[in-house]
Amino acid sequence: MPTLEPNQLAIREMKEDEAPIVLDLLKDGFKDTENRLILYVLTRPLALLLMAVVSSGLRFFLNSFVVALVLPVLLTVVALKLLLRRSPDLKHLHAYYSVGQRRLWVAVYDEDDVCGCVALEPRAGEPRTAELKRLAVSRWYRRSGVGRSLLSFSEEQARAQGFQFLVAQVSVVTKAAIQLFESAGYSPNGGQQWLGYTIQQEFSKEL
């Protein structure tokens, strides 16, 4: 989709009746990222080696070669899903983002089409730092400038609330998101690892 004109896109706080739409948008983006990240981890050399070792060991205790082969893969997938789903209960999305300094905004195309969202939360233990959350764009509006508009808007909101730094956790398989943060002046600053592989990069920027 071509880049949207500024007058075609509005960013405002999410309304309560828009929560189901935003929740579906977030689930769609999360599921896509989760599946790609699991495939990425499963195809790393160390992960393949460990699963092969476990599979060989299981063959001494199980009569089925297929079960011994598949079980390590299933256990790895379950472990990754549990690791990736450390998040608040999104069933109560509007209530969660209506308390304190937590806010969730939506990008709306042509006045009524919710095409993206982003949230801002204070970072625990770091009073000068805000954390970017829930940045997602509908698959029909990707590469049209919605993500960049949401990011710029979030920076303005963070400055207005007195924050000096903005950080975001980005999955290593979301290349478009990584390019977006890098082009906006964010620097990589550590991340989350699993089996020695980075699965989420943290980006930070001084506002």
TrEMBL record:
It is found in: Membrane. Its main location: membrane. The keyword Transmembrane applies. GO terms for cellular component: membrane. GO terms for molecular function: N-acetyltransferase activity. CDD domains: NAT_SF. Keywords: Acyltransferase, Membrane, Transferase, Transmembrane, Transmembrane helix. Residues 9-207 form the N-acetyltransferase domain. It holds the Pfam family Acetyltransf_1. InterPro entries: Acyl_CoA_acyltransferase, GNAT_dom, NAT_camello-type. It comes from the Eukaryota. The chain crosses the membrane at residues 37-54, 60-84. Belongs to the camello family. Probable acetyltransferase. This is Probable N-acetyltransferase 14. The gene is NAT14.
